[in-house]
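User: Structure please.
Assistant: Input sequence and predicted structure:
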Amino acid sequence: MQRTILHVDMDAFFAAVEQREHPEYRGKPVIVGGLSSRGVVATASYEARRSGVHSAMPMTTARRRCPDGIFVQGNYALYRAVSAEIFAIFSRYSPLVEPLSIDEAFLDVTGMGLLAPSTRVLAQRLKAEIREKTTLVASVGIAPNKFLAKLASDLEKPDGLVEIRAEDAVRRIAPLPVRRLWGVGRRTEEKLAALGIKTIGAMQQADEKKLARSLGRRAAHALKELSFGRDERRVEPDREAKSIGKEVTFERDLESAEEAERELLALAEKVGWRLRLAGVAARTIQIKVRRADFTTFTRSRTLFEASAHDGPIFQTARDLFRELGIKSGIRLLGVTGENFEPSALPSLFRDEKKERLYGAIDALKKRFGESIITKAPLIEKNPKKE
């Protein structure tokens, strides 16, 4: 049986939630993101997009392009709550739901013929239920695989509903720009343009051996497959997070190692808390350091024993940072835990006293919020962050 996949993508999700919560914002350009001089746009309403504002744009550029915009820091706890409502609706239409982000997912609706006369009617009902229960608008793509479904959902935004059938796929996608293929970023697009490949149709006609000389054998084959609408990956429901991390861009560059290590301590505290909430411990700790010139370094280390405690996370992050030898001009820092193990696994090295301490700390945080308790060095005034 041929698979039937829906890709559901909420339109301008953060901005749409803000417009829902604030009637005075409706019909006006709303821009959500970091409001500092180093901030970037997370989401822009379609009214703002008409002024050339888009996600990942520096906030300073957005303010120039849309001086009359409504700029909002964003209420991410609210967005997560609304997202939970939407995913609850998804679960009514398929048991196979693969989250891609807070506002989009794949649904495998293969064999769901009893729910509606056609897949298109099923998608219409899904869109209508989302609008009825949340007042928000979703775009939906219908296709025989994940790549085509995601491509379809973006073709007629906002409030789109597009189906790409297997027999029509090659013809339908041929005129689209080659950047629509997964894995084609700016640099790959430039390489393909140099080969005269600017559309998916041109990719369909391209010689794979020539492509391989420019892109590598694996990438060339993958892009050729996608250009013909072929994608064998299945919808993976309830995907577990592969990493838990936190990063921060500073209002002003950090100019001392002492400042940087204090920020690493704060990040380690947040990552440790999130690991414990998830019931996992990380065996690998990674740091990310971005300098003022945007040069970015990542370093990682595997621990002797997986941990969800702030101390080992910070000590590892600090050691990795010191090995880099960077002491000034630091624009961004990040700490991530990876390579998870269940935190309840027995251990010969478990410190019961420390477990009780973290249990008490976590109970306070759950009751009164994450900022209710912190380490003494972090009480000092920190650089303002977005």
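The first helix runs from residue 13 to 21.
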